[in-house]
Every structure is written in C-alpha cells, then in structure tokens.
Amino acid sequence: MTISIGFESTAHTFGVAIVNEKCEVLANEKHTHTTESGGLIPRELAEHHEKYALPVLLAALEKSKKKLSDIDVYAFSQGPGIGPALKFGAYVCRALAIEQKKPLLGVNHGVGHIEIGKALTGAKDPLTVYASGGNTQIIGLDRGRYRVFGETLDVGVGNLLDSFGRSLSIGFPAGPKIDEKYFLGKNLISLPYSVKGMDLVFSGLLTAAEQKIGKVDENDLCFSLMHTAFAELTEVTERALAHTGKKEVLLTGGVAASRALQQMMKTMCDERGVDFFVPPAWACGDSGLLPAWLGLVEYNAGIRMALSETTVNQRQRVDEIDVVW
Ligand code: ATP
Ligand code: FE2
C-alpha cells in the first residue's frame, strides 16, 4: 500500500502527517505559532517552523512507526501562503525526497482542504465552503477544475472574528469564544450586510460592530456580528448551489468548528434537500494531512513533478490546478 508524507507550512502551522491509501492517518503532528496580537510576521513564522520542523517530523515518524525509507511519496503545500514560511516547508520536504530518492510533489493547500474533507466525510462532489482565518471561498468542481463561485474580497471570516475579539480584549483566537457568546445573545442588532454579487466584504461590518462596543450588550453584539457574517456566507452558498445544481455542501477550514455556522448551513441545506458534511475538527484546520493526502491522490493519478516545478507560489489559487484524479 502506498504511503505518503505531507509537510504543511503555509502560515502559522508546521505540520507533518503520514497517511496510507485507505486514508488511515498513521501520524498527524503539528506545532502552531501563536501571538497575542494574532498578526503573522513572515520572518517569525519561518523561525518558528525552523525551530519545530525536526521535533514535529521525528514525532510523526515515531507515532507512525515508519522510517523515511518506508515512505513512497513526499508532498508539501506549495501555496497559497506566506513566502518565507512556505519556502521552509518546501526545503525540508525537497531535501528529504532527494536524499531518499522518492517522488516529490508540491500541492495546493486549498485543494488539500477539499480532498481530505471529501475522504473523511464520504462527500463525492460537494460545493465546499472553505472558511478559515485567512480564506473564505465557495468552491466546486466544474469542467476539470475547482472553480471559485464566491469569496471574500477583503479578510477571511475567521480573521473578522479574531479582529473583533481583539477589540473586545477576549484573546486570540477569538472565534471559539464568539461562537459561545452567539448562543447567549438575545437581540439582533442591525449591522451592515455586504454581499457584492457572489462575493463578500467584511471590513464595514467589523468597523460598525467595533463602534458599538460598550454601547450595547456584548453577547448581543457577538451574536449579531456572527449572525450577519454567516448569513452572508450562507446566502452566497445557497446561490452557488442553485447555480451549480450540486447536492452536497462540505464545510471546512478552522471556522467550520463554529456551531453557529454549522446550524445555519445545515438549516439551509435541509430546506434545499442537500446533504451537509463537516469533517472532524482535527481535519478542518491546517495540518500535514492536507498535503499528505492530496499528494497521495495525485501520485496515484499519475502526477509527477520535476524538481524545477516544485517552487513555492504564494498566490497559487485552487482554480489553477487540473483535477485529473
Ligand atoms: P488558512 O491558512 O487556511 O487561512 P488559518 O490560518 O486561518 O487557515 P485555521 O486553523 O484553518 O487557520 O482557522 C483558524 C480560524 O478559525 C481562526 O480565525 C479562529 O478564530 C477560527 N475558529 C476556530 N474555532 C472556531 C469556532 N469554534 N468558531 C468560530 N471560529 C473558530
Ligand atoms: Fe488552511
């Protein structure tokens, strides 16, 4: 059975995972750089990854009871992400693959989120709602590529929650705390609802909510901010379903852990007779599992890369990848 190792380093997480063809996770180790402010400084990310790469790799090997020579495919997240962080993961993976004389694949981080989500939930051809700190996109397979049907034009929805949390001084990441407050809020406060065509803009919502801090009940404000942002996301998802005719929704990315978002999406899906899937929380965020599994899928589909094709690409989009598997 083919075994793949994946290296994830697009942003704050350095992760190494080892997975087999049945999508059995033999190891999934990671370390995440955290800051009080939540802001990501490229040089600090690279330093973090440099510090944790070896311990994380050794922990993954030990957990999986595999040696580097047992592994058939070496994969890493090629983009999108933050340059110095991406490069570090790529260097590590390349060096090991060359030393072991094994195939090396650079894979797309967003496609990784989709494919691991499909593999773990059984979704076949979903419309994927990828909602994380840095990204918010509604994606579906169409004519051989994952097309983006709608996306944020400014910040990711998780970033909106974290920025608002910073203004409330409730610590980082704020998403889980705001998600708890959502269920304590009783009154919906009117805030700017901004859907542009199929795209989303969150900055006006953030500013308006920040201006109400101290003037209205905090739980009501958290409820209203989240409700407004998620209603926008749900509306665009519903329209993309109508457009594509897809019968499944897959919610992934770190914000997929939100019970509020899950409830709203599920209600919409139930009303439309669409199946709703959320991978387990450990598989929604960034980890080595994304490149490990996608690398294996691509390898089994016959994809091979020359070393020169494995340069990182900070702005690589999901719709640049030919889905031949
Ligand atoms: P990417 O690189 O894909 O953009 P990321 O760096 O944002 O990912 P993730 O782990 O995918 O990392 O997502 C983290 C985000 O998820 C944070 O913004 C955090 O506040 C949010 N989040 C985590 N749990 C919850 C929750 N229960 N409810 C709402 N938001 C949550
Ligand atoms: Fe991610």
From TrEMBL:
Entries under InterPro entries matching the protein: ATPase_NBD, Gcp-like_dom, KAE1/TsaD
UniProt keywords, alphabetically: Acyltransferase, Metal-binding, Transferase, tRNA processing
GO terms classed as biological process: tRNA processing
Signal sequence region: none
EC numbers for this chain: 2.3.1.234
Reactions mediated catalytically: L-threonylcarbamoyladenylate + adenosine(37) in tRNA = N(6)-L-threonylcarbamoyladenosine(37) in tRNA + AMP + H(+)
Domain Gcp-like positions: 25-293
Record GO terms (molecular function): metal ion binding; tRNA N(6)-L-threonylcarbamoyladenine synthase activity
GO CC field: cytoplasm; EKC/KEOPS complex
Organism domain of life: Archaea
NCBIfam families recorded: arch_KAE1 (TIGR03722), gcp_kae1 (TIGR00329)
PANTHER family to which the protein is assigned, alphabetical: TRNA N6-ADENOSINE THREONYLCARBAMOYLTRANSFERASE
Protein name, entry field: N(6)-L-threonylcarbamoyladenine synthase
Organism the protein comes from: Candidatus Iainarchaeum sp
Gene transcribed to yield this protein: tsaD
